[in-house]
Backbone:
């Protein structure tokens, strides 16, 4: 029997001294599968206000950061953006798949946030 629930998961990473950071998210349990519909992200200036350096953000769905798993990207990774290009993907621990966000060139010390919304199934 499959149980369907709303998916609304958020993760964070602090950007390093170069303004870079990587965040990987995936289901916790072996029976849980994510069917993402929207991924949102932002890495605001740690002091507040407008980011001093606008980060690039790249989104991957797969087991590592590699061009073959690239889904979408933006040059407004600090100000924030979202993408629905994640529709059609299934993320589960069975294939070691992850939703991976990569920020480059942002403000050092910024707390980058990625939010995954959609549906999750317990199978």
Residues:
């Amino acid at each position: 029997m499959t149980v369907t629930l709303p998916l609304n998961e958020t993760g964070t990473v602090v950007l390093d001294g170069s303004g870079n950071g990587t965040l990987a998210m995936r289901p916790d349990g072996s029976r849980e599968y994510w069917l993402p519909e929207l991924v949102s992200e932002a890495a605001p200036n740690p002091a507040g206000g407008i980011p001093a350096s606008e980060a690039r953000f790249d989104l991957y769905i797969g087991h590592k950061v590699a061009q073959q798993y690239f889904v979408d990207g933006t040059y407004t990774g600090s100000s924030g953006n979202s993408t629905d290009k994640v529709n059609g993907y299934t993320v589960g621990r069975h294939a070691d798949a992850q939703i991976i966000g990569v920020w480059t060139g942002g403000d050092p010390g910024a707390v980058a946030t990625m939010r995954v919304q959609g549906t999750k199934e317990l199978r």
User: Anything to note?
Assistant: The chain is about 0% helix and 50% strand.
